[in-house]
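Appendix B, record 7
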Amino acid sequence: MKTSIKKRILVTASISLGVLILIASGIVWYAYHSFKSTADDMYEPVVKPVYVSKDKEVPKKPAETANKDPFTVLVLGVDERKNDAGRSDTMIVLSVNPQKHDLLMFNIPRDTRTQIVGHGTVDKINHAYAFGGVSMSLQTVEQFLDYPIDYYVKVNMEGFSRIVDVLGGVEVDNPFSFDYIGHHFEKGKISLNGEEALAFSRMRYDDPRGDLGRNARQRSIIQNMMKDALKFTNLTKANDLLAELGQQVKTNVTFGDMKRFATDYQSHIEKIETIEIAGSGQRINGIWYLLVADAEKARIHQLLKIHQLQAPVTSVGTDATSAGS
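Structure tokens (predicted):
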């Protein structure tokens, strides 16, 4: 009798374990294929010439990264309107180097005056997107920095607010109190929903630092969103997040690259370092521009080059500020 009871218990336990394994396998399979479908929706290749730096110490980039190679990304926050190509409201460059265990991040101010590659004009750098989309933006940024950009991520700024909401909001440390388009933002640590985060990232005219202050707030939001996304465990909202990403984000990062970055890179990035591009404002023919001196462009180029070097360095001799994760 006891033997029969033991057998029934073992059979029941085996069936229960089998059901759990099947459920877990189903969840993994569903998550994998849902994410692959989203990655396919997001994937949008870009055609442009391979950029070769004038700096002979900058190696020519391979077609794709491998084996924890460092890489660069241009993040474009785009305001796209009906019957209008829109402009890149936000331009952020990321340098990822897992061997140095950090990520370097900096904005290119939208009013920066530079040559628009492929358009034959000198204009605000954010106009490159309006003239020639992602390809012209990438080529213009590469020439401005004299450094190749491996990947791009384009985010629809209106949809960006919905991504923040799916993540459950974002917390930021606001340097000063201000009001903007019907929202009040207290000084100090505040939690923002999607609509508030979008407004918080856009205000600049009442900021004592102007566009630089606006850029710093944008970086703060992105940094904290990246942290929140890495900790995101709400499976009931996972579908919502994937749906929003599929609709609002475009990138030339393939599904294979995404998997590789998640497995080979994510655990190696321990902090985020931020720097700023300095410039001086000037009106030219009635239009306000930010003029960036050649020496400043050379400084940013050097910082980017050093960060992308395979081997760690003990000091870069710069005024870069660290923003730990």
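Remarks on this record: The first strand starts at residue 71 and ends at 81. The chain has eight helices and 15 strands.
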